Amino acid sequence: MEPEEFSRAVGKILGSGPATMDERDAINNAMGQADSIEEMPEDIQRLLAEIPARANRYYAPESRASRVSKMEREIIKDSDKCPQCVANNDPRKVPVHPNCHCDVVTRSVETGVADPGSPLLGVINTIDGLMEIEVVNGEVPTAIQMNGETVAIFDADDVRFADLARWLEQMGPYLEATDQYVSIVVDDDTEEAIAQVSETLEIIAQDPELLAEAIRNKKLWFGIAQAVI
User: Fold this and answer.
1) Positive/negative CA dihedral, 174, 177, 182, 188
2) Which CA distances in Å does 217 have to 50, 64, 87?
3) pLDDT band at 203, cuts 50/70/90?
4) Residue 206: inside a domain, yes or no?
5) CA nearest to 197, candidates 229, 176, 179, 221
6) Structural domain of residue 14, as residue ranges?
7) 99 and 131 in a common domain
8) Whether 86 and 104 share a structural domain
9) pLDDT of residue 131
10) What is the pLDDT at residue 59?
11) Whole-Å CA distances, 84 to 74, 80, 94, 209
12) E strand map for the chain
């Protein structure tokens, strides 16, 4: 079996159900000493056979909507003292009129709000077309897993670019590590929630209305994912 084919086969199994980090380390070590699943030690083969069956126990369908993050926002009002702007203290209502120059700054974004049992926190195989991913330097990993501690969740109709900017600032320590990926995930709040990652962050910065249209009536997750294999 070709090395890439071997890696994809193992990655697909790992993406089908949950596995601990110790189990993943054992599988990765066994991969370094074999050229196919059949050549791996029997205990590793049994583990690989067991993982898909865990999905029914761990990945029960979600019956409720994901909780959104709490945020602290502040309006930076224009200096011209427009009466409409002076009277407005709701960050969700900026701008309040055409050519309004007021701005909104996000001071903090709550993270770690995702349900630990959500399928979106499981291993996602990039090779199966469930995810679009763009890597500036290096190769696309065969599978990635989102870190639940980094996840912030927003109502699509209420998210602002300032929220993303503040979240990125808060995620600085995570982004210093290697093999970390900024992930933008659309959650349909259905049993078949499917992850869709934006190709680049620049899309949001250049055309936020396009993104808003695509995620209408959905929830938007910001999270840091890491390569699994």
Assistant:
1) negative
2) 37, 15, 30
3) very low
4) yes
5) 221
6) 3-58
7) no
8) yes
9) 52
10) 40
11) 16, 11, 10, 24
12) 71-76, 103-109, 123-125, 143-155, 180-187, 219-227
Residues 12 and 53 in one domain: yes
Q: Are residues 134 and 207 in the same domain?
A: yes
* Residue 79: DSSP 8-state: T
Q: Where are the alpha helices (DSSP H) in 59-206?
A: 83-87, 161-170, 172-175, 202-206
Q: Decide: 160 and 104 in contact? Cβ < 8 Å.
A: yes
Confidence band of 226 (pLDDT split at 50, 70, 90): confident
12's tokens:
């697909």
Same domain, 143 and 82: no
Q: Give the relative orientation of helices 3-14 and 21-31 as an angle to the nearest 10 degrees.
A: 160
The most distant pair of C-alpha atoms in the chain lies apart, rounded to whole Å, by 75
Do residues 34 and 83 share a domain?
no
pLDDT greater than 60 at residue 18? yes
Q: Over the stretch 73-130, which tens digit does the pLDDT of each residue have?
A: 999 988 877 889 999 988 888 888 888 888 889 999 999 988 887 777 877 766 554 4
Categorize the per-residue pLDDT at 215 as very low, low, confident or very high, splitting at 50, 70 and 90: very low
**Rounded to an integer, what distance in angstroms lies between the CA atom of residue 26 and that of residue 66?**
33
Say if CB 221 and CB 187 are below 8 A apart.
yes
When divided into structural domains, the chain yields a total of 3
